[in-house]
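Q: Hi! First time doing this. I have a protein sequence and I read that you can turn it into a structure. Is that right? Here it is:
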Amino acid sequence: MGFSLIPREEKFFDLFEELASHNVEAARTFKELAKNWSIDSPAFDRIRDIEHEADITTHEIKDRLNRTFVTPFDREDIHELASDLDDIVDLIQAISSRIYLYRVSHSNDDLVQLADILWQATEGVRKAVKELRAPEKKRRLLDHCIEINRLENAGDQALGVAIGRLFQGTPDPLEVIKWKEVYEVTEAAIDKCEDVANRLESIVVKQG
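A: Yes, that's right. Below is the predicted 3D structure, encoded as structure tokens:
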């Protein structure tokens, strides 16, 4: 019989890796924007385009899930992992949109640090997702998840320092409001990377 479910199963892993790569590209673009600041930077449009591409990939995963009888792992986990991965790029798009709408005039070392942590976390997610298709490499997947958790803690610390700096001296209240939101959404994207790591750890445990 020529019918086989294996190609469909493998396609889920391909799409998850594609989605994780979108996250890395968006985070890298945002990091470069933070380092080489310009309100007229093409990075704003590029991040929006990446977010659109990620939405298409997420839709394909969910559409394929509805059409596949046998899946490589739990159907709910496939749905939730796709949503969590898509949330990362959505949050990066949200950060860049706020920066553009608020007409933020400059970057600073705190934003650069948070953007770098975010990029490292998305790289960790990409590496962990790549190991998902090979159960025999679950130790490597879990090691990547541990590193993502470490980066989330580093993000929390960097956020605390950044917000503390906002209130030094006699700051402009509007500037404080704008920057606090930018910092917090950036850290929320790092948190979402940890959510993906937790999801991956749960999938590995279920697979035994």
